[in-house]
Amino acid sequence: MKEIKILALVGSLRATSSNHVVVKHLARLAPDEVDFQVYDGMGKLPLFDDSETTPPAVQDLRDKLSAADGILICTPEYAFGVPGALKNALDWTVSSAELVNKPVALITASTGGEKAHAALLYILEALSARVADDARLLISFIRAKLKNGEVSDGDTLRALNTVLTAIIREARLSKAEASSHH
Ligand SMILES: Cc1cc2nc3c(=O)[nH]c(=O)nc-3n(C[C@H](O)[C@H](O)[C@H](O)COP(=O)(O)O)c2cc1C
Q1: 110 CA distance to ligand 1 centroid (A)?
Q2: What is the pLDDT of residue 101?
Q3: Which is the CATH superfamily of the domain at 4-180?
Q4: In this model, does residue 65 exceed pLDDT 90?
Q5: What is the mean pLDDT of residues 6-24?
Q6: Distance, CA 111 to ligand 1 centroid (Å)?
Q7: If 0-12 CB within 10 Å is exposed, 13-18 middle and 19+ buried, where does residue 38 land?
Q8: Which mutation among 111, 120, 140, 151 tests ligand 1's pocket best, with the greatest number of atoms within 8 A of CB?
Q9: Using a 6 Å CB cutoff, which residues line ligand 1?
Q10: Mean pLDDT of 35-42
């Protein structure tokens, strides 16, 4: 029985994306009791338009976020900012509030990535998400830390382990809190 659900949102839509390599590594590393899914609708979400109606793809995203006990965001930086696809997905959750009090882990895996990482921490604060200190990781020079489609750098492997442990801990805690309130 899978006790804990983690949903990963990846900010790169590239087929051979380093961020997907990182997320695949985490999915393999996740213990048996964790249902680790990668959201696959990022590239097909309509652009946020602040309308009253909810497109089906947006409802699907919101349902998946609600069902998850923890969210893991893994993203590059584009032009010193947050990739548009990821920002668009997050904007769709502002009024529906799926990320309010939700445990979120943030991994920015990029060439540099400092600015997108900092911007995302502000965005997650705006969304009232819970981002534990040990669930934040900036991996700069990401491409040098991969080999043959796998994470190969020792320090990066250790840091990823720490983030995964942190988000599972936070997700478990939040799930226990929710069940004690009902
Ligand atoms: C349009 C574009 C803009 C980029 N701008 C930045 C940037 O501002 N900062 C940075 O750290 N990397 C930047 N990069 C490099 C990405 O970090 C690098 O391509 C990374 O591998 C992308 O993640 P992915 O492998 O998961 O697709 C940029 C890449 C592209 C394609």
Answers
A1: 6
A2: 98
A3: Flavodoxin domain (3.40.50.360)
A4: yes
A5: 97
A6: 6
A7: middle
A8: 111
A9: 12, 14, 17-19, 76-80, 110-113, 142-143
A10: 98
